[in-house]
What does this fold into?
Amino acid sequence: MTRFLIRRHHWATLLVGLPLLFTPLTVACRQLNAPASEPPEAVKPTLAGVGIELPTRSDLPVAPNGNHYPLVPAKADNTASLLVSIETALVDSDHDPAEIPQLAHQQQVIYRVLSHNPVLSEAVRNRLPSRWHWVFDQHISARRSFLAMHRGPASTTLPAWRIQAPAPQEDLLKAYRSAADATGIPWEVLAAVNLVETGMGRIDGVSVANAQGPMQFLPTTWAEPGIGRDGDIRDPWDAIHAAARYLVRRGGLNDIRRGLWGYNNSDHYGKAVLHYAALLQREPLTYRGLYNWQIHYAASAGDLWLHEGYAAASPVPVAEHLKRYPHSAPPQPAKPN
It folds into this structure.
C-alpha cells in the first residue's frame, strides 16, 4: 500500500464572524440536550506541524475531483490513530483550509463504516484518548440513529438528484446566525438540519414526499402564513430562515425535540440532529468539517458516493451508475500479491 501526505500550513483567514461563534449561547441553545452524556471541556489541538497520511492505493478509480473513495484501515489501532489526527486538524484554526475537504470526507467515511460494525467501532473507541470519546460517541450515535430510521432492503436505483456545490460556508453561517437571532432557534440546530436534509444544499432534488430546496420543505408547508413569506423555497437564506420560523411554530423554543418532531416525525431524526448540533455547540470549528461532508447513498451495492456533478433526471439503476462511475463504490480489500 502506498500513502500520500497532507501537509499543514498556516490558515490566515478564519470563518466570517468566527469571534461571534465563541460568545455565550442563548437560553434556547442551552436547551439542546443531546442524548449523550455531558461533554468534558473542549479538546484543544495537539498536533503542530505534523503531516497526516491518508490511506491510498494505486488501483482505485478516482472521481472527477481527482480523489478516490476514502479507505478505512483494517486495523483498529490504525483507524484510531488516523481519526485522532483528522479530528485534531479539523478543529485547528491553523490548518490549511484547502486540505479540509479531503480530511472531512475521510472522517465521514470512517464514521459511516464504524456505525455498521459495533465490534470494530468499540475496538477503535477503546484505542482513542479519553478526551475524544465524547466526539466519537456523538458521531456514531448520530449515524446509528439514521440507520434505525431506514429498514428493509437497500435500493437498487439511485434517486433523480443533482449533486451541486453548496453555497459558500461563510454565507450559510451568516444565514444560520441571522435566523437564530431572529427566532431564538440555535444556529447549531439549523446547521444540523441543513446537513442531514441535503448535505447543506448539495442535494438538489425533490423527495418522494415532494419536499424541496436545501431545507426540504413541502410546498404546502412553505405556503403556510408566516413560514415561506413569499420567499424562494430553493434559496438557502430564505429556506434557513423559514426553517427557524417553522421550528418555533412547532414548539422548538420550549422543547427543541418537539420542534424537530414537527420537522420529521421520528425520534431517531431528532436525536441525530441534536448529536450534530451538540458537536457544533461544543466546538464551532466542527462546522468546517461537516460543511465538507459528501453525499453518500445507501444502495444495494453499498454506501455509494455521489460526487458533486452527479446528475440524474430520473432514477438510475445502481449497476448502470457504477459502470459509468466506478469510483462511487466502496473499495474492496486489496488483492494479495
Residues 189 and 277 are 5 Å apart (CA to CA). DSSP finds 14 helices and eight strands in the chain.
